[in-house]
Amino acid sequence: xxxxxxxxxxxxxxxxxxxxxxxxxxxxxxxxxxxxxxxxxxxxxxxxxxxxxxxxxxxxxxxxxxxxxxxxxxxxxxxxxxxxxxxxxxxxxxxxxxxxxxxxxxxxxxxxxxxxxxxxxxxxxxxxxxxxxxxxxxxxxxxxxxxxxxxxxxxxxxxxxxxxxxxxxxxxxxxxxxxxxxxxxxxxxxxxxxxxxxxxxxxxxxxxxxxxxxxxxxxxxxxxxxxxxxxxxxxxxxxxxxxxxxxxxxxxxxxxxxxxxxxxxxxxxxxxxxxxxxxxxxxxxxxxxxxxxxxxxxxxxxxxxxxxxxxxxxxxxxxxxxxxxxxxxxxxxxxxxxxxxxxxxxxxxxxxxxxxxxxxxxxxxxxxxxxxxxxxxxxxxxxxxxxxxxxxxxxxxxxxxxxxxxxxxxxxxxxxxxxxxxxxxxxxxxxxxxxxxxx
Amino acid sequence: xxxxxxxxxxxxxxxxxxxxxxxxxxxxxxxxxxxxxxxxxxxxxxxxxxxxxxxxxxxxxxxxxxxxxxxxxxxxxxxxxxxxxxxxxxxxxxxxxxxxxxxxxxxxxxxxxxxxxxxxxxxxxxxxxxxxxxxxxxxxxxxxxxxxxxxxxxxxxxxxxxxxxxxxxxxxxxxxxxxxxxxxxxxxxxxxxxxxxxxxxxxxxxxxxxxxxxxxxxxxxxxxxxxxxxxxxxxxxxxxxxxxxxxxxxxxxxxxxxxxxxxxxxxxxxxxxxxxxxxxxxxxxxxxxxxxxxxxxxxxxxxxxxxxxxxxxxxxxxxxxxxxxxxxxxxxxxxxxxxxxxxxxxxxxxxxxxxxxxxxxxxxxxxxxxxxxxxxxxxxxxxxxxxxxxxxxxxxxxxxxxxxxxxxxxxxxxxxxxxxxxxxxxxxxxxxxxxxxxxxxxxxxxxxxxxxxxxxxxxxxxxxxxxxxxxxxxxxxxxxxxxxxxxxxxxxxxxxxxxxxxxxxxxxxxxxxxxxxxxxxxxxxxxxxxxxxxxxxxxxxxxxxxxxxxxxxxxxxxxxxxxxxxxxxxxxxxxxxxxxxxxxxxxxxxxxxxxxxxxxxxxxxxxxxxxxxxxxxxxxxxxxxxxxxxxxxxxxxxxxxxxxxxxxxxxxxxxxxxxxxxxxxxxxxxxxxxxxxxxxxxxxxxxxxxxxxxxxxxxxxxxxxxxxxxxxxxxxxxxxxxxxxxxxxxxxxxxxxxxxxxxxxxxxxxxxxxxxxxxxxxxxxxxxxxxxxxxxxxxxxxxxx
Lengths: 439, 785
Prior knowledge:
The structure holds two protein chains of two kinds.
Chain A: H1 25-30, H2 35-41, H3 45-54, H4 67-72, E1 83-88, H5 97-104, H6 106-120, E2 124-129, H7 134-149, E3 165-170, H8 180-187, E4 211-215, H9 216-228, H10 230-234, E5 244-251, E6 257-262, E7 265-266, H11 267-274, E8 284-288, E9 297-298, E10 305-306, H12 308-313, E11 322-327, H13 332-346, H14 352-372, H15 375-388, H16 396-410, H17 412-416
Parallel strand pairs in A: 1-2, 1-4, 2-3, 5-11
Antiparallel strand pairs in A: 5-6, 7-10, 8-9, 8-11
Chain B: E1 3-8, E2 11-16, H1 21-27, E3 51-54, E4 61-62, E5 72-75, H2 79-95, H3 110-118, E6 135-136, E7 141-143, H4 153-161, E8 167-170, E9 177-180, H5 193-197, E10 203-205, E11 218-223, E12 232-240, E13 243-250, H6 264-268, E14 283-286, E15 289-292, H7 295-313, E16 318-321, H8 328-342, E17 347-348, H9 355-362, H10 372-377, E18 380-384, H11 388-391, H12 393-406, E19 409-414, E20 426-429, H13 435-442, H14 449-452, H15 459-470, E21 475-479, H16 486-496, E22 502-505, H17 512-517, E23 524-525, E24 529-530, H18 535-541, H19 552-560, E25 566-570, H20 574-577, E26 589-594, E27 606-609, E28 618-621, E29 626-630, H21 642-652, H22 657-660, H23 680-691, H24 703-713, H25 721-725, E30 730-731, H26 757-760, H27 764-775
Parallel strand pairs in B: 1-5, 16-17, 16-25, 18-19, 18-21, 19-20, 21-22, 25-26, 26-27
Antiparallel strand pairs in B: 1-2, 3-4, 3-5, 6-7, 7-10, 8-9, 11-12, 12-13, 14-15, 14-27, 23-24, 28-29, 29-30
Helix pairs in contact in B: 2-3, 7-21, 8-21, 8-24, 9-16, 13-16
């Protein structure tokens, strides 16, 4: 179990039951549990979708698409069953929020899934949990079992005459499966490779049926919107960025952890006040604002509100809310290498630019960091990343390319310092020469 | 579907709604490169080579996955697009071994072409390339992983196209690798389609690899000599000290009736050609032993003996057995030789399908036969008997892909759970030997139901099958040798209740249908005309024997009784096929022409080394009745085409050769000398000659001279010669009245994917696959049902 942290600036909504023992269904009920879904049963699909649309809730997985809008794309009539999918394949480096939701408040996810189901008149939901979160699937299994035992799931939920089933499914350990169509492939028992779109999941999704697929945090936010109302939720953040958000502060900060802050909270404040500033009295060097795939911000660029639109303006992305703070002891080449090792390992291999590009970037960065770099490598890294960008089958290629381009553009000098056989200036013990290995 | 307006590179065009952008570009003459896109298979969007710019869409889009939309404005080439494609090629070349100088695909490689087109010549990476050792997956399939660019074409052609599913993808990321279905090897139909479809040299053929460079070969399009389906195959031919060497069979020219398809036999089993057991010199039995002799000595002997016997006892003392693997021209010539030169109707061949009864059943319905191309387009298909997957691989491909791509309905009726049932809308599993009963049921006779029902196929299933069939239109009915004689007429009657029904009667060898069409029957002239009705032939040939001749079993009896003084066997192995007592012909003078000393050589007095279909020009008619060209790949020293041998024997018998082969313009000095007379060049030359109204027949050995006569006299063969010569198949018709024969005269070949009659025994490729299977027992069906 992860340690919980807190700060007075926090607005606890999704995290309000954290540490309250809400995995227990009775305790959950005491904490206003399952009230939203009962309310939703009396609202009707169109009104539900409007409510979520008006709340300004945007997808918490990273892309930030308006959730209610997404739901409204599901056709009313469908010859095939409709599905609701909870994407709990949280794997973006630096992101650890869904994990806390599953750990502390599994029923809120179930409730969100059922409400989403009601809004599109679906009768089946799947909660897909990342393979590495094996211990969380035990918690989720128990929660589902308890909900069935109370008649909250299954036939005639809450005596409403509406049937709704929820199943959980575990991944096998693939970042790529966090991509919605790859997740559906995985759920269907196939290789986790994204699908060609269109058709989009809302029309042709799981098993060919219309499918709502949302991030766990997004779905866990829904019951609160239903209970508190769209206006209240929207008012918590800046325009078009409704609500609060779980920010996962990690790296060289004094008090790392997951904090729930309103959308648009200032990043600088987040680092220096909420997380207690840079640890060990060092200086800030860079911040990765929304998980490893987002372009980094330099120390000079951190005075920015943390919402989708502001970060876009600042040349980065809000992403999944994983804020990774780097101090001045960090070698940016090594950080770039570590990032690329991840994407190279996680590339599904389907399309050429991602499969080959991540591998060459990793090989080049590894050699470069080991002091074997040549001058043209720097341009080559940038050339490679720029040629991957926007041309891959799914966003994984972009996720690998975007931060790399930012590292080169913003920290070119540091790359140059590694040249001409000079050892990494940050490694005191010397660098172990890395031999290329065929992964 | 309605048309959609699009603008491609500034050109305003319309194309049917639903068209893929890449296809719309192709139709507009704009090449959009791709590795992973392959027409007819599922879309991948993996290679990112077909990126194009669509107005109002921020990112470049893949043309292979984009369906055209109204008003779409597309740019297919710009500096941005060029750079995107160039970088894809650079990325592929990063790990690709640059062993082009030794790679089989060098010169025929799509990656090379793209490198050339996009100028991705600079090597950007200095790190070590990823490497894996080469693997052998089967006797005929090798995989060189580092060359693989992961376009997944092989996976799809094997699974979607062949319904074999022997290839898949293992691992992920840069470690992704194509892998065979059974650990380290393939258990499959060994069709080699994965090799043909591979854009690079990752999958290579065990028969061809590292043997030659593509530009050192001549590429000859001809027709496969194995089963009755008549696939177009392209032979890669090299000069060798013995004449020619066929190094490769493949299907690079996809315009044949087989489209993308070729099976193991078409692709690899050309290697009987240079089998060391091939005879290359005439042999004459002297003191009980077959002794090498000269062609002159052999022709002299045969001519003298045949003339003697004809003179003394008449033609009825000679029997002639023709072949299902010789060309139409040779078969026509052989029966004309028997009837006109020898003066006998004693001519027969190994029958594998009851075509005369089929002709009789059709009773002049000229449009009631389906071509191989029709099978691919039919909205519904009924297959009774046979196992096309094993016996007619192309037909099975057409059926399968018609179901997959056109949602055609397939009805399968068989006594075995044949593989095609997996594509079937309905499958009726009936007891062995009850096919005729089933036809009766389809005709409305419910009394046979008790015989047909089984645990697998209840009464209701059979009745509903009948109802569904009655509701179909333009049904193609395909049936095997299980149906013969009278039953065929009943089936045709059932079919005629369905509007637009067409039929395919299956025969097993490459020219089984041609042999039947050309009249290799003791009672039928070419075109299924009974000998008693052959007025046109009689007039043309100046008379022919009236009485029907002897069938093969009758010839054996006649020989035993001492009445058959000579037997002339052309390209057949009756001793093995009909289990003939070799001593039956002890007193007969037996002449055979073949490539090998088969069982029939045991009884032969003279053995003449013949050429095979790859070494001669002419035509074949496949089981559907599609007429196709044979193009001569070359000659093997010492052998002669059967056509020339027959003419030579007639000449030695003192017959006026001009009456046998109506050639003109040639000279006697030509005989045996005009190397070009039967070569592919001569055929192509003849297109030009004909176009200029000039004489095309150069010598008595020119099969085109006989083709003229065939087209003139044989009902159903009036097809366009020019279209035929251009390499396109021409569907013939069955117009003759046909006849009922004893059904027992039909002996199906029962070949499967890896056997091919006597010929198959001399193919190293087929033998190595069979041997490999004996070592590792194979599950015949590799994918889950």
